[in-house]
Amino acid sequence: MDPRSRALLRPRLAGGQLQSRRNFITIIEQAHEGWRLTFGRNPVPLKPGLNIAIPVVHTVLNVDMRETSIAIPNLPGYTSDNVPVTCSGSLFYRVTDSYKSCFAVSNVAENVKNTGTSAVRSVLGSFTYDQVIADRNELNKRLNQVIGNSIQGWGVECTRFEIQNFQPANREVERQLELQMEAERNRRKQMLDTQAQINVAEGMKQRVILESEGHLQAKSNEADAAFKTVVREAEARKQQSLMEASALAQQVTEIARSLSNSEEPSPEDKQRALAALIEIKRLEQLKAIAASQSNSTYFFGDKASMGVGSGVEAFNVDYAQHVKKGIEGNLDAKGKKIDPSPVAL
């Protein structure tokens, strides 16, 4: 039998609606489900393939179980901020329970379309215009949820809803929205500029703080360095004094050994060695004074200051006079005589 003849003999049900036929065999196609009624009651499910259906006695309802879509074109509505818009989209659904789709609702496709149209107007009113423009997927999810909850009692599942077109209802509204969007962009630009200026000022503030902290740290480091320098110089002078004292003590000990001809000189020997060392130093100073070419005057003190009465008689008055006579014949670097006044250490 050719397909055309076969189509004439086989009754079809579109959306659960019956089409009459007059043969004893009905074919349920793949992805379809059928229900056979006997005198309009006692429904019996029919699986895909060949099934018996007696004319007049039996009535067969054929339901398509595949996913299908319904177009909802140019639907007017209002957003939550009272912007008139025109919206169009596609509603995708699939029959999950063929029994309910046949006996719980009269016309599945028509009722699903009506439910989708009502849901679009309702859900659209809960979104602002900017929200729909910014995130259309959220509107699709909300429509899918609302429509699915409404038609699930009919054995129908809403798989998804896709907004295809969304625009203002007229040009005047569109122009006002463009002006509003431009004002919003200017406001955001001003906010960004203000934030940028705040960031620059904050950066300058941090720079000044860091510079002051750097200067403070530098001054602190300089003070620490100066303190450590003074401490080290004092330690160096102390060490130098200790070394000089040690050298002087060693000189006194050596002179004492020379004077006593003993490895362990007595305190008296060390005292005489110290006096001799002092005399040597004084003679060196007097020699330097005698050899000097400067026009200076030196005054000698009394006998006690020159060691008289202390055990040291190297500088008595006669000796001082002798030194003075020796100095009187000397001239300074400018050819002038040195003042013959008494010289004092």
TrEMBL record:
CC annotations in GO = membrane
Check the record and name the InterPro entries matching this protein.
Band7/mec-2_domain, Band_7, Band_7/SPFH_dom_sf, Stomatin_HflK_fam
List each copy of the Band domain by range: 23-181
Q: SUPFAM superfamilies per the record?
A: Band 7/SPFH domain (SSF117892)
Gene3D superfamilies, A to Z: Band 7 domain (3.30.479.30)
Would you tell me the protein name for this molecule? Answer: Stomatin family protein
Q: What is the species listed in this Swiss-Prot or TrEMBL entry?
A: Coprinopsis cinerea (strain Okayama-7 / 130 / ATCC MYA-4618 / FGSC 9003) (Inky cap fungus)
